[in-house]
Write a structure and sequence with these properties.
353 residues; alpha/beta; 11 helices; 14 strands; 21% strand; globular
Length: 353
């Protein structure tokens, strides 16, 4: 068996990137739009294996069919895991086709959830998801004394940033539950950083006493960074993300005895609307009621985070006063928000469809 070395491939190397795309195409894959490190293995000048990274995930693996049995996946995976460790990322995730999952399991990855015929979601720690579930339970026990007859509900929220619409959704849901679990999308890919989003949620909900806040950690990610390299079209990407998120959420709901999930009516985002339609159908099959709450409006227009970001982009900070809680408005008027305001104003587009 030959010994092969792994080489980093840079985006500026057009010939190498072309070779990566061609190799991925032989496996019916494409180069994902979210990539921050690409590696390859060559036999002379011929690319025979490739794999990539994005944040704490591994993705876009392909091996030349003529080199099966050469342990190239093991060599490539070991190299990329070491790169992640050097970055300080020790909890790693793989999204892959279901047909490829068995190979990663043989190399030390463990299944979190699988959507038959669509994708498998794996991590490199055998009991990490179980530990995460136990953490959710402890967070709940610390804040609430719960009986078996208590009605428990949930919301999953990004809040980019936190608006009066978000606050209204939480208040309305909390009024219909004994305990309301609010899962905050922890992925730091939104234009408003996670630490700020969480801070604004905490400030805007401190009056809601039956609310328990949870981080999603890496178990739920946004549609902007969901891997699409093994998906045929946008509809399939949306469906596979929805199915994966709902499968994971259902496991969390089962552990916490959650029987209701609350979502806001979606008049703007076509992607979110498709996602919500899938969620309503699937969760009902899992005996979880989905309650759609009409959006809070201002001047007959539903309040949205996109509208708030657009006003900030236009440097109309005073204009957001009627759309956000006082705590959010005060934050964006403070010096602390200057760097975030600059990011919003420099963004090409802040409206999400």
């Amino acid at each position: 068996m030959n010994q092969y070395n792994v080489t980093r491939i840079y985006p500026s190397d057009r010939n190498a990137i072309c070779s990566v795309k061609e190799l991925l195409a032989t496996e019916d894959l494409q180069l994902d739009k979210n990539i921050d490190y690409i590696a390859g293995i060559y036999d002379d000048n011929h690319l025979i294996a490739t794999g990539s990274l994005y944040c704490n995930s591994l993705r876009c693996f392909a091996i030349d069919k003529n080199y099966q049995g050469e342990a190239l996946l093991n060599t490539l995976l070991t190299y990329l895991v070491n790169v992640q460790y050097e970055r300080g990322n020790y909890h790693l995730f793989i999204y892959t086709k279901t047909s490829s999952a068995k190979y990663f399991k043989q190399l030390g990855f463990y299944e979190i959830a699988t959507i038959p015929g669509m994708l498998a979601f794996l991590e490199n720690k055998p009991n990490a998801f179980k530990s995460y579930i136990n953490k959710l339970k402890k967070e709940t026990e610390l804040q609430n004394t719960i009986s078996k007859t208590d009605i428990q509900g949930a919301i999953v929220m990004n809040a980019n940033p936190f608006t009066l619409g978000h606050q209204y959704l939480i208040e309305t849901a909390a009024s219909q539950c004994d305990v309301l679990h609010l899962f905050i999308v922890s992925e730091d890919s939104s234009i408003v950083p996670y630490t700020v989003r969480k801070q604004l949620i905490q400030a805007g909900t401190k009056h809601i006493h039956n609310l328990v806040l949870h981080d999603c950690d890496s178990y739920m990610i946004s549609n902007s960074t969901f891997p699409a390299y093994f998906q045929k079209d946008e509809q399939t990407v949306i469906r596979s993300q929805a199915d994966l998120d709902i499968t994971i959420f259902s496991k969390m709901a089962d552990a916490l005895h959650i029987t209701k999930r609350f979502i806001g009516e979606e008049p703007f985002s076509s992607v979110t609307k498709i996602y919500n339609d899938i969620m309503i159908k699937t969760l009902k099959e899992n005996n979880i009621d989905v309650i759609v709450i009409k959006r809070k409006e201002f001047n007959t227009v539903p309040i949205s985070a996109s509208a708030v970001r657009q006003l900030i982009k236009e440097n109309n900070i005073d204009g957001i006063r009627e759309l956000v809680p006082a705590s959010t408005y005060d934050f964006f008027k403070s010096e602390t928000a200057h760097s975030i305001i600059k990011r919003i104003q420099e963004a090409d587009n802040v409206i999400h469809y």
